[in-house]
Structure formats: structure tokens, C-alpha cells
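Q&A log
Question type: sequence-to-structure
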Amino acid sequence: MGLPHKFSRTIDNMRNSASVCSCCGFAHPYIGFIYRWTNTDNGKWYIGSHAGCAEDGYIGSGIAFRRALRAHGLDKFERDILFFCITSQRDLLDFEEEILIQIDARNDRQSYNLKNKGIGQDPEFARAFFTGRAQTEEQKTKRKQTVETLGLFKGNLNGRSQAVVCLNTGQVFDYARLAASAIGGTEPGISEACKKGYLHRGSEWMFAAEWEAAGNPDHHPQYEARARSKWRIVRLSDGEIFDSAAHAGRTLNCTAMTISVAVDCPTKSAGGHYWMSEARWREEGEPLRIFKPFDRSRGKVVDVTTGTIYPSAGACARANAITSEGVMATLKGKTKTGRFMFVEDWEVAGRPVHPIEKKRQKRSVKNVETGQTFHSLTEAAKFAGGTPSGLQLAIENVRPYKGMRYEYTDCGHGQAQPLPSISAEHG
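Response status: OK
Response body:
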């Protein structure tokens, strides 16, 4: 690639200067330079300019060039300094554009340059270049939309510059940054909480102006409307409200499941406290209840199926021929039966008695045609080569099953007596 003669200066011509650069440690009078990166794998190149030191680490900003850097890696590219500029940034970009136009870099298949323009690579120069220039109405509209979207306006359009109030304490801060410093939070987090009703660092926030206009409410209107507000629970020891069982669990270092069980069952506790949903708590007049810990391993136990009281979990286990671990698991709510309760909890619940329903007793079946009897539906169905449910349905609808008719032996005669087992033989 050939270049004009006036662009052939090298760094050897730039050694005399009155100041020393902080990047390279040399004294140089240039304000910028034009460079060329060459891909050693395929020979493609990119030409650009930079206002600064040649050793400050600047690489380039071209879209296609940056894509090639990611694909091949910087170690596959070599940089050459084509020209140093000692006049101004405008001259630097003019020189770059003249080079690009002369070699028509945009249409060269070996070039990563997408345009024959030098302006745009240096943000500081682009800003200075456009300052004072008249803008079209379309440009003004787009710029206004961008500024409003990003919240760059100062005043009421920027949430971070407004006074905010912590609804949990009622403290007012002049702007979000002060509030963030006071609670160890973040300025964007408080601004987002004010706009959308989220919690930030466990507290509710509102813009002070909106809070006063709404009549100083205790909760953010949007937070009240969110589904999360329906999950709030109350610690009955002191009436403290938590956002959810998970929030309470993190605070008390226990599982959310344990607290959820305590919320659903008023006789159970979690983390050394009794719990209740906020809605129910307010309906019942905001009651408080102190948890009294005691040695549950020696507390009296009741069998709620019979009302029998045992002096301890161990005595209950021995009387019912089960393990004490099984009894304790039931007492702690880890089983589905709920057969055993501590007497104290049982009395608080109103001394309920829930007899265990006995399983349906087996009914013997008779083959009407052969007179053969079976101890159960399962035995008869197995003999017939079918299923118990199919045989039961056939008996209830008085229809043959597998070519034979069957009926219960106790039909119309009360409960059948146990029958001796018989061999399963046909005929």
C-alpha cells in the first residue's frame, strides 16, 4: 500500500520537545498519530488515528477491526506508525481522511475500514467539533428522548436527585446517595425502590414529594399491590413484620419451611417464636404471644387418637411398640400422621381427639358357578387371571367376570367369618 510522501515521517524526527510524556517517558511534541494495524495471518489492515501518546495502550475503535481482534487475537496483529501530527486534532483527522480517500480503504477487500472518514474515533474531538453547531429538529427530538430515558436531566426527572424517605423509620434524606450511605445500600437500588415499590436493604422507600402527596402512608402503594405483600408474616413475640418466611429465616438463621409450618399451625413454633400471617394477625387484633422454651425431651405426650397421656416421649414409644425417634419426629411435625402432640400444645389446640380410621376389612368372595370361596378379592382375581378392581366392578354390577359369576360371601348375612385357605385349581 503506497502512501503520499508527506506522510512518511517517523518517530526519529520527533525527539526534540519541551515536555516529557507520562506514558512513555520520552519528550515528544506531537499531539497524535496515524497508525496501521496489519493482520499477519491474512494481510488485512486497518488505518486509524489517535490523539495521544503512541505508548498509552490505545488499539483502535473500528467495528470490523475490533471483530477481527476478537477472532484472531492481538498477537496476530502488528502496528506501524504512519504519521505524527504536531498541529491540531482537526488536522490529524483531516490527514487520516485524506489517506483513506486516496487509497479508497472502504472499497479495498484487504481493509477493515468501513468508511473513508476520520471523524468519530476521538470522542473528545467529536464533542468539541459539534459544539455550537445547529441541530435539526429530528436530532433534537432523538437527543431529548435519550436524555430522558437515561435520566440525565437534573431535578425531578432524575430520581437520584430527589429527596427520599424510608417508610420503616420515617427518616427523610435530601437525595438517594445520602440514604445509601446511611444504610449501606446503593443509590440505584433506592431509586428503583422508590419508583417500583421494591424493598432495598429490607426497607420500603418513596420519593418525599410523592410520600407527602399520598398522605404519608406507611407502605408504598405499589408494594401493597404486589403479590409479595401477601406473603408477609408476623413474629408474635414482638409484632415485627417480615416480608416472607424466607426473609424471616435469613434473619433468624432457620429454614423458611420451618417458619411456614409454624405460620400454618398456631401450636408450633420456629426459631424460638410463634408466627402468624399478617392478614390474620390484623384480623385478630394484632395479638402478641411469647414463646416459653422448655425441655421437650421430658415433656408429657398425648396420643391424639385415644387421648392417652404419657409422661414422656420414651414412655409413649414403649407403650406403642415404636421407637422414641419416631415419636419425636411426629412431635416436631416431620411426619404426616400427627398422632402425637405435647400436652401443652394439645391443650392450647383444645384437646382434639382424632381416632385413626381402620382400614377396610377384607371380604371373602365366592364363585357362584363352582362354589369355590376365596379369602379376598385379590385372591379371587388372581385365580381368575384378572385384577381386583375389575372383579370388584363385576360383582357390584352383577355381571360375569372372565366367564364366571362371583359374589361376596357376606352379602346379606353380615360380616364373613375367616375362611380356610383353598388351593387355586380350576374345575
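Response note: Residues 358-427 form one domain.
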